[in-house]
Design brief:
Number of helices: 4
Number of strands: 12
Shape: globular
Helix content: 10-25%
Structural class: alpha+beta
Strand content: 35-45%
Order of helices and strands: EEEEHEEHEHHEEEEE
């Protein structure tokens, strides 16, 4: 298995740059998935975006089935019926240890921002999320002061964020710079 370093560049209101290392060829069943006690943006090693919504749960307030039914209804409304493409999908939901956790996946950062706005999810703090190659996000990266040539040389993946919140990455965090507080190599608080 060949190790390939990836760059995750995040331009936040207070410009932040994150560099990640990942291992190509890991199977999905080996992926850990999000592990958090608070709501966060989760970025998989292949660049997929998930929102992990964590709320306090009072036992008996509602069942896991009711949580999943409610989430599915909101997702179906957001996805509409115009196309077969689903911008938002339900990954999982659980009610454990006083926490209600709902994980949803998105085809783009714009879909995540739009969905959170539509349903009034005030736990999702990001106002803009862009993902792509350094070439695709060159203007954003240059504006954030990222070493664009170095980003190109790594064959990296970039994420541009605006907002103050938690981000968890599946790949190891190698470096973070500018307005970020790093927790244990996988969790980053932006706008700190």
């Amino acid at each position: 298995k060949r190790m390939k370093k990836k760059l995750l560049a995040a331009a936040v209101v207070l410009t932040a740059v994150l560099m990640l290392g990942g291992c190509e060829g890991l199977s999905a069943k080996n992926a850990k998935g999000p592990e958090t006690e608070e709501s966060c943006l989760y970025i998989t090693k292949d660049g997929n975006l998930q929102w992990v919504s964590v709320e306090t749960y009072e036992g008996g307030s509602y069942s896991k089935e009711e949580l999943l039914d409610f989430a599915s209804e909101k997702i179906n409304e957001a996805n509409g019926t115009e196309s077969s493409k689903e911008p938002v999908t339900l990954v999982s939901g659980s009610l454990e240890k006083g926490k209600a956790v709902l994980i949803t996946s998105y085809d783009s950062g714009e879909s995540l921002v739009d969905f959170a706005s539509e349903i009034g999810d005030d736990t999702m703090p990001f106002t803009e999320i862009k993902t792509g190659t350094p070439e695709e996000l060159s203007e954003d990266l240059k504006a954030a002061g990222v070493d664009y040539e170095a980003a190109l040389a790594t064959g990296s993946f970039a994420v541009v964020l605006q907002g103050e919140g938690m981000v968890q990455t599946e790949a190891d965090l190698l470096d973070a710079d500018g307005g970020c507080d790093v927790h244990d190599g996988h969790f980053i608080k932006t706008g700190s």
